[in-house]
Amino acid sequence: MSRQARLMFFSPEKRLANAIILFVITTLFYFFGASLRLIDELSLFWPLNAVLAAVFVRNPFLNRAAYYFIACGAMVLFDAMTTRWGWQSLVINLSNMVFIIIMARLLLRYSRARDENNWAVNAFNLFYFCLIASVLSSLVGSIGFMGPSGDYRQFLPLFADWFSEQFSTGVLMMPLLLMAKWPQWSKWPAFHLSTLYPLAGTIVSVLASMVIGGAGSLTFPLPALIWCAIRYPLPITALITFLTGGIEITLVAHSMVEMHHNHPLVVNEMFSARLGIATMAICPLIVSVSVDAIKRLIQQTSLRADYDYLTGVYSRSGLYEALKIKAPLMHKPAQKLCVMLLDIDYFKRINDSFGHECGDVVLSAFAAQLSKVVGDNGLVARLGGEEFVVVCSTDSEEQGYGIAEKIRQSTELTAFRYQQQTLFITVSIGLAAMTPEKQTLHDAFNSLLAEADKYLYLSKRNGRNQTSNAAVEELTIDS
Ligand SMILES: Nc1nc2c(ncn2[C@@H]2O[C@H](COP(=O)(O)OP(=O)(O)OP(=O)(O)O)[C@@H](O)[C@H]2O)c(=O)[nH]1
């Protein structure tokens, strides 16, 4: 991911600026969380912990005691100015820090190394890391909050509420926070109305869960979210999933999705709803991560198929793809399509005298030299063994012949090096050219390749290290 595309607020060199920004972010989100408080101390959503954990994951250099201290200090200071919690504030904020530090450390240790470019939201890992961080931080929070003289019958409901909030907010927010980047509008595909269908499906299913109600209705958006995961990029899926989960939690908390008709909302139901929503939220992400991985695999496989592994020039299949995509841009209607078939002379001797590895080095250096001479004026491919093909568009066949000769002469003059050895090679070339009229470039190429093969044979037969084409063939026949 490029520096510009990622959201960058921190820098390893600017420690004071880092400290100030961290302090401001902590205070802002603390304020936001505090304004969402539902019942006394507890919050419906507490986004600060997920936000700070993501900040520490995205900026590994911030993972130092001093920065942890600043974040915790900002929280305690906010409480000191806005509440009368006293020591309880220390416990609550310590529990926040437990979540933040455990989450950041686990993600940095197990996810980042695997995929440097994607901040690897391995959805399974994220789910379990959130679980571990939430259990530990809620334990610290609820035990500390009750204190030694607390009524321990209250422990379980307190722990359940604390844990389910941390866990659901973490699972819903972390993927989005870890992947957030400035949108690159230029890379967005053209808009079609059908693009909105999965989003519309999600909205309709959230509305349906409001109308129908009951615990089961919370899973209504799942199919639509999975549809989103298949259609949209990973960060967009993370955003929609986050919004859907957040809306559902709010609806349940405000009894707009009824879990039990005619019964007021009790903590256990909230606990169950939050866990259910968090579990549902991870499903589209798992699909999205898998779709992303499959897409990358397809990209890698086609890259492998399109390029020759040894020399880096096009493979045979890659050349046919390039003829479809690149050649029409390069070829003007009145121009000649020139196909040169090249075969290194006596290549077997190089293998026999210096070994197969030396042969590979020569093939690779020859391909590099060939690409340099042809430049942007043509396509270079390796058909197999020591046989290469060059396709270019020229104003005349003579011009094509000129390029072929330039290749041949530069090959003859190049000293190829392998270990302490200096080797010289020559190449024989067959050249065929035509102005494709009704034929596609692909068909024209196929017939020119067969013709060039005939002229290559002529070059070999006439002593190698030469270029042959129709004109040379005529001369040979005449003489
Ligand atoms: N090192 C290496 N050798 C290869 C590769 N592919 C094919 N070869 C060798 O290339 C040689 C081609 O030999 P021949 O077809 O007899 O042709 P030549 O020796 O070049 O002789 P002429 O083409 O008639 O000038 C064989 O020894 C193959 O084993 C490769 O990827 N690497």
UniProtKB/TrEMBL annotation:
Gene3D superfamilies: 3.30.70.270. One of its GO terms (biological process) is cell adhesion involved in single-species biofilm formation. Its cofactor is Mg(2+). Keywords: GTP-binding, Membrane, Nucleotide-binding, Transmembrane, Transmembrane helix. SUPFAM superfamilies: Nucleotide cyclase (SSF55073). Residues 335-472 form the GGDEF domain. The chain crosses the membrane at residues 20-39, 90-108, 120-146, 158-179, 199-220, 232-253, 273-294. Pathway: Purine metabolism; 3',5'-cyclic di-GMP biosynthesis. One of its GO terms (molecular function) is GTP binding. It is an enzyme of class 2 (transferase). It catalyses: 2 GTP = 3',3'-c-di-GMP + 2 diphosphate. Its EC number is 2.7.7.65. GO terms for cellular component: plasma membrane. This is diguanylate cyclase.
